[in-house]
Amino acid sequence: MNMKVNIAGVELKNPVMTASGTFGSGQEYSEFVDLNKLGAVVTKGVANVPWPGNPTPRIAETYGGMINAIGLQNPGIDVFVNRDIPFLRQYDTKIIVNVCGRSKEDYIEVVERLADEPVDLLEINISCPNVKEGGIAFGQKAEAAYDITRAVKKAAKQPVIMKLSPNVTDITEMARAVEAGGADAVSLINTITGMKIDIHRRKFAVANKTGGLSGPAIKPVAVRMVYQVANAVKLPIIGMGGIANAEDALEFILAGATAVSVGTANFADPFTTEKVVAGIEEYMIKYGVQDINELIGAVK
């Protein structure tokens, strides 16, 4: 039985990985999860300099999920290269580095620093606020998404995954733009902008007023968007958004995703990723599926 999948020439032992920002760089989860069992570990967003993130409170629980406005807090590329890459290299799993920035130059700086590092793929987070566009995310205008993809591709040595934001009118337009810009793969969806108000304090639940909604509540939207993108572009897709078990993961794969990322569920149950791998295997045995690639996009 084959569970291996291929993303832009990189072979993963199985299609299950972590979603950026929910797993650190694996250190804190390695006590619970055998990282060797995962197809890949996707790191928290890495910027060219340390980012302090947003003021607190930054997380609020909501029905069927959570809202976060962490603001991509991270220690920067220097710490990442010296501390996190050596840690992850101890394991037999692929390393996908999530890259964030506030300008094209920020992204390029990180991508160039990673060129000679032993990492397998780059995931470019274009939901970052673009300072030159007055704070609108790179991933909300097709033209900006195309530009940043082209610039990153020119500088990158590793294959480039562009992470798409669902906070757009038409996700297929964004997918086509990054495909035209030379992306090797896409991952989707990032969080959906949401808001929660504390009625007793009469205040916003997170200091930023709005935050990114993730968790089971967004899964039907995510599955729909993965299906649309799978039918609009020829790129491999990493699907995510509310995956809590193998059944959820298989929905994404049947909709057209080559691989899947588990995010919010890690907070509720740190063993989720391993359980998803085991559950996909059980499903394949139950239905006599010899090769997981038979399932990718099987629902038309």
Briefly say what this structure is.
The chain has 300 residues and is an alpha/beta fold. It has eight helices and 16 strands. The protein has a single domain (5-54, 71-193, 213-294), classed as TIM Barrel (Alpha-Beta Barrel).
Low-confidence stretches: none
Write the CATH architecture name.
Alpha-Beta Barrel
Shape: globular
CATH-derived topology: TIM Barrel
Q: What is the CATH superfamily label?
A: Aldolase class I
Distance between the termini: 24 Å
Overall residue-averaged pLDDT value:
96
Largest sheet: number of strands, sense, barrel closure: 8 strands, parallel
Binned, the helix content reads 25-40%
Class from helix and strand fractions? alpha/beta
Quantity of strands, as a count: 16
Q: What number of structural domains do the residues give?
A: 1
Tally of alpha and pi helices: 8
Compressed to H and E, one letter per element, the order equals EEEEEEHEHEHEHEEEEEHEHEHH
> What percent of residues are in strands?
15-25%
What would CATH call the class? Alpha Beta
